[in-house]
UniProtKB/TrEMBL annotation:
Leader peptide range in chain numbering: 1-21
Entry keyword Cell membrane: no
Domain of life from the UniProt record: Bacteria
Domain Ice-binding protein C-terminal: 164-189
Entry-linked SUPFAM superfamilies: Carbohydrate-binding domain (SSF49384)
Native organism: Roseateles aquae
Keyword annotations of the record: Signal
NCBIfam families noted in UniProt: PEP_CTERM (TIGR02595)
Name recorded for this polypeptide: Cohesin domain-containing protein
InterPro entries, per the entry: CBM2/CBM3_carb-bd_dom_sf, Ice-binding_C
Amino acid sequence: MNAFPQLLGALLLGASLGAPAATLTLIPTSTELKPGSALLIDLMVADLNGKDSVGVFDLQIGYDATLFSFSGYQLGLGLGDAALGQALDISQGGQGTGRVHLGELSLLDTLPVQGQAFKLASLSFTAKQAGVAGFALSQAQLGDAFGTALPVTQLNGVDVTVSAVPEPSSYALLLAGLGLVGLWSGTRRRRD
């Protein structure tokens, strides 16, 4: 078992009095989809008040695996570009049914300007069937460039609705039913 996530978690659990409290939010491209549609969700961090920068994060996102399948993720550039060796991707991706683990550690001496709000990652899902699914953050830990924990006060999840698409046969059945009702009402008028 990889001990790095546990070590990272222990580093992030240290108390940091007076640090700004961050808000983590999941922002979907759409809250209404059809089965087979792709869904992109951005993981945003905000409310750092410009005092600290995020140098490391480790969190899980839960979702309903009967309604969605996890397709992949892409880390944001706020902690550096992992492809250029500026950050270490410690994500474990999809972990079993209905959970995604994301984590990143910046390797930069000086973090880029992150601003009040920025994207930590984008997640891709595919809608499988009709229903309402909640996407929720859990076990969220943030740290500054020195590994000192940054408190997280809010974890904002999101609900996404997948609506059933009527099959062509449903439309044919509806039209046939309307035709029969029309014939029946026409027959009743002729009798009267």
